[in-house]
Write a structure and sequence with these properties.
The N and C termini lie far apart (40 Å). This protein is of the alpha/beta class. It contains ten helices and eight strands. It binds adenosine-5'-triphosphate.
Length: 210
């Protein structure tokens, strides 16, 4: 099973990378593909260009075989919709099942994603969460109905399912956001241990968020 992990990555940081590795090893995935959005559909235009965000992902993942970077959304014209990305990945990886990895904060808004119900049928979904996550914290909704019907708690059964199921995967909790990093750069603050050194070096050299 291949993990797919979309985001703006403006810039990529350890709050993306460590949970991606946690899911990779917890589920013995063949790889996790980090997919930067070209034109994000659900938020403001990123400050870094798509080429810069792609470059920062390459720097962050160099020598880490578990994590690969996929540029299909930045190559595609128009807004980046995950449903299009999934259809494109399925055409490329006909023999592999896919799981979409989504942070809990993003998953809460999943019903606003284009064709979200089609996504739930085409792939499995891994929701990264706190170790003591309580399903009752998600309000009653169509999304909650999906979880009720689709959740599998047994990892091996989840991995045996080609699509249509979801799994809550506890990951390392890191209170890091790209927003905070962009703010810190503007203030000339300390960036060490929030994101990889190579990314820090690149974004300062390119003067991206100053
Ligand atoms: P911004 O601060 O600009 O909104 P972000 O740091 O939240 O950005 P995104 O690129 O928007 O990063 O997020 C991509 C994915 O990474 C989403 O699924 C999100 O839930 C997840 N994610 C982001 N930060 C963390 C974190 N600290 N821990 C776990 N997951 C995270």
């Amino acid at each position: 099973m291949i993990g797919i992990y979309g985001g703006t990555f403006d810039p990529v940081h350890y709050g993306h990378l460590r949970p991606a590795i946690d899911v990779y090893s917890e589920l013995s995935l063949s790889e996790v593909r980090l997919i930067p959005a070209g034109v994000p559909a659900h938020r403001d235009v990123p400050l870094a260009s798509s080429t810069q965000r792609y470059q920062m992902l390459l720097l962050a993942t160099q020598n880490i075989n578990a994590l690969t970077v996929d540029d299909r959304e930045i190559q595609r014209a128009g807004s980046s919709y995950m449903i299009d990305t999934i259809r494109s990945l399925q055409a490329d990886f006909v023999d592999e099942s896919l799981c979409l990895i989504v942070g809990m904060d993003a998953f809460i808004n999943f019903e606003t994603w284009r064709e979200w119900q089609a996504i739930t049928q085409l792939v499995n979904i891994v929701i990264t969460c706190r170790p003591n996550f309580d399903l009752d914290s998600i309000p009653e909704s169509d999304l909650k109905g999906y979880i009720r019907g689709a959740e599998i708690q047994d990892k091996d059964k989840f991995l045996a399912s080609p699509a249509g199921h979801c799994y809550f995967c506890p990951v390392t909790q890191l209170d890091i956001s790209a927003t905070r990093i962009r703010d810190l750069i503007k203030q000339g603050g300390e960036l060490n241990f929030l994101l990889p050194d190579a990314v820090i070096h690149y974004l300062l050299q390119e003067q991206i968020y100053q």
